[in-house]
Specification:
Helix 3 packs antiparallel against helix 4, helix 3 runs parallel beside helix 5 and helix 4 packs antiparallel against helix 5. It is built from five helices and no strands. The longest helix has 44 residues.
Length: 197
Amino acid sequence: MPVDDSVNNLGMTLVNKFEESKLPESCFTRKKQRQLLIDDHTTLTVSVRFPDGIPQPTLTVESSKANSTLLKHCGERRKLSAEHRAQHEQLRKRVLSSIRQVFSTMDLELASNRSHSAIAESAKRWFDIGLIQDQEMLQDMLARQTMEAEALAANQTLQLPGTRAPTIQVTFPFPEVFEQARNELISHLEKTLNQTS
């Protein structure tokens, strides 16, 4: 059955009755880039720095020749260690780069009519919530990595009759990163607020 388009169409014109607020000119000016702790860290990947994986205790030549399975297992452990290290470095980078997000938001807030101390407290509170989430993510990551290491050790033990394969030790090599990030944020907040006061 053909539909008559002229019957059920209502014409509407939408009118925006709200004035668009203009952003302050300071939002469009290029600011000097802050030197942050994240800028001091290497951008090389784990695979470039450790092409053979994270160094593990090596086997003697005699035992390697005697059993190529041990050599294969050692390579598997190195690979898993390198993957874990890369994940740790990604988390460290995430924590340290989150400071930039605070500053980009804070630059907009400084143009508002809020007091500088209220802006600083809001930035610290927001950052602390982010750090708590990152610490929870770290705990989940370590639990998962521990299970991966134990599963690899169990699998390798099954392939070695009468011998127990070693388990990779899982630890976060940058426990100070959370405190460093918070201290850096506070330091930069003080500098920024002193400059704008």
